[in-house]
DNA sequence: AATGAATGAGAGTTCATTCAT
DNA sequence: CATGAATGAACTCTCATTCAT
């Protein structure tokens, strides 16, 4: 009978669940989130949830996987650019723009809260590596072009740039009065100061 | 009669529990930590635990309260100094030194993971305020002395300095290769660059 | 699709749990009854129990609610009768018949044992009121008809009649040799003596 | 050293604990009463409590033992009387007077709530027997004197008289508006009606 | 495919009781 | 004798997950 598998419909529903989970994780943290709450938010039954994800943790991992894909997509967008420093600063700026999704800070904290679980840690590592892979080549290029300092190697510089965006995310998460729009300029300026030879 | 309450002994045991809790929270996150695990770590029975703390969350709050006291104690240490910029950088540096306790990053993430709980959020706010109260006056003094930039007001500058130390803590937490000792110098240098007029 | 909710099945199972709880409460008292024991008696898992009742106390309240419904149902059975005294004595007699369920005395004691809990007290009040509402009008009618004494007002007479049935229940509960069948006649006779003008 | 055992002091303290326990049992039921609450009420430490009573249940049993002693003491007061019916009614009346202690109803319910425990049941039986032993001979005498009905044997009549006082106690316990003073007369009158040949 | 009723492992917490001081 | 800190057994309840329909 019935068209049992409509891949598009399946994928769409999967995304609905992922989005719902992101929302609830951000609000209540990982353990504070019950599968029931995700189902309510997604408008599905609990049985359906487990049709799409074998485990609550798997939804979380799926969300993280999304982020990795994102980083890779963005890599292509920069291909062909010749102003290495400009790209580096653009990446920094785009890090600030992630905060645009108001769920992000809460979600980041939620993930941090269970980072001690090996599979989560691993996925996060992959995430981090994907981001580094995006940034690192441009830092190296900028160094070779003499646009930025060379007293620190490219790897450390990359770490520090992500330290800035991570800190930015954290501030935005915890400080109500931290205006993302206004502070983004300070972020880019601070990155520039940090990178100056 | 009856040596019923030996306050010193009581306080000591309380500290043992707090310390044990800090260790386990850092390792397994807040929800991943069972009271049983804390008791095992502290070498006490479960009943004893609840003799000292009415709730698992109360141990966490007690740990955070410690941090607040710390900030206030440190304030006194700087009293009398006249080199405002020096003090500011010292505070930044001491932020990096907090990472000396290898449990700190994990603990910070654990707390982040349940920051959505109102009482935890409140305590953290208090913590943040205590830290700001420590830093802010010295930033203002440094500005008046013309030692640092004045295009951002003292409040924003303070936020940014903590953004740096928080990001530093986060990096140390997630990146194995991030050498605290070596990077502390970069931190202070970066703060100096950020503060330059 | 999916026969998700079969209300009849749900209600049936609810009744099974209620019945099991009544049995165990009667045997061991309220606090002496563990939810595990109720589950065992009902042949269900512990999770199922809490699927039907949010709290152990809620089962108890559900049992009491049953009693209230009972009283209301019975009210209809008497509608249309014209022999007020006869109805009053029938109600007294039916009170004695409640003891037919051998669990009743134990259950009554169990409820008494936690009557200090506000919600239980409230439900019991409702129960009492439902019973009074059943009896009172017939007492008034009997008084107007000159069938019974009028030196006490109808409310007090009603209280006294329930005093008799309650006492009867208590005796049946505590005295092994108290033969319900034989004593019921004494009960009705005593009520008659009490009511005589 | 010290006068370790001062029997009078010991007995006094025992009574304080018993009284405190009676108060708290009446207010919160047996299981609702923590030993800590009894200690607070008695103004003693928890260790002291267990110096006087090996078990929480033992305090309860001690209270019940008191009642038994009471019944025996009263027996002597009636010795020498010749108006059997008068004594019977006096005993009934004194049953109503027990309610004078406002804690009594609550305590009775508390005891009922754990009557399923063998030792409590046994003590209660003893209590009941003591009361019967007080009443029964006078009922027999009254029957022989032709003062009261003889269609029921003395044992059943005794049961019914206690049924009245128990019911009275129960009403007083559950019905706010039940005025003990006013209703006591009704009680005696009802007993008289019940006993009438 | 979709559902939600059923499940039981496991967690936090309470409290009678012990015992060193 | 008096104390209260320490204890752990036992209990209620939560929630991820399974599975019949």
Notes on the structure:
The first copy, chain A, has a domain at 60-195: Tetracycline Repressor, domain 2. Chain A contains nine helices and no strands. The mean pLDDT of chain A is 92. Chain A has helices at 7-28, 35-42, 46-52, 56-78, 84-97, 104-113, 118-144, 154-174, 180-195. Helices cover 75% and strands 0% of the residues of chain A. The relative contact order of chain A is 0.12. In chain A, helix 1 crosses helix 2 and helix 5 (84-97) packs antiparallel against helix 7 (118-144). Chain A starts with 6 loop residues before the first helix and ends with a helix. Chain A has 197 residues and is an all-alpha fold. Chains in contact: A-B, C-D. The A-B interface holds A 27-32, 106, 109-110, 112-117, 124, 128, 152, 156, 159-160, 162-164, 166-168, 170-171, 174-175, 178, 183, 186, 190, 193-194, 196 and B 27-32, 106, 109-110, 112-117, 124, 128, 152, 156, 159-160, 162-164, 166-168, 170-171, 174-175, 178, 183, 186, 190, 193-194, 196. Chain B binds a DNA duplex (21 and 21 nucleotides) through helix 1 and helix 3.
């Amino acid at each position: 009978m019935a068209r049992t598998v409509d891949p598009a419909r399946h994928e769409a529903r999967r995304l609905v669940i992922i989005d719902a989970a992101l929302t609830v994780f951000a609000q209540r943290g990982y353990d504070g989130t019950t599968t029931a709450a995700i189902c309510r938010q997604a408008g599905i039954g609990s049985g359906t949830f487990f049709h799409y994800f074998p485990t609550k943790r798997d939804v979380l991992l799926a969300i993280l996987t999304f982020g990795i894909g994102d980083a890779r997509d963005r890599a292509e967008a920069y291909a062909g650019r010749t102003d290495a420093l400009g790209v580096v600063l653009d990446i920094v700026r785009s890090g600030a723009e992630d905060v645009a999704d108001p769920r992000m800070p809460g979600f980041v904290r939620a993930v941090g809260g269970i980072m001690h679980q090996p599979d989560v840690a691993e996925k996060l590592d992959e995430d981090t590596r994907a981001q580094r892979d995006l940034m690192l080549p441009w830092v190296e290029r900028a160094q070779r072009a003499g646009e930025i300092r060379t007293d620190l190697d490219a790897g450390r510089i990359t770490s520090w740039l992500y330290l800035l965006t991570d800190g930015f995310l954290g501030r935005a998460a915890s400080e109500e009065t931290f205006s993302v729009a206004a502070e983004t300029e300070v972020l880019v300026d601070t990155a520039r100061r940090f990178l100056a030879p």
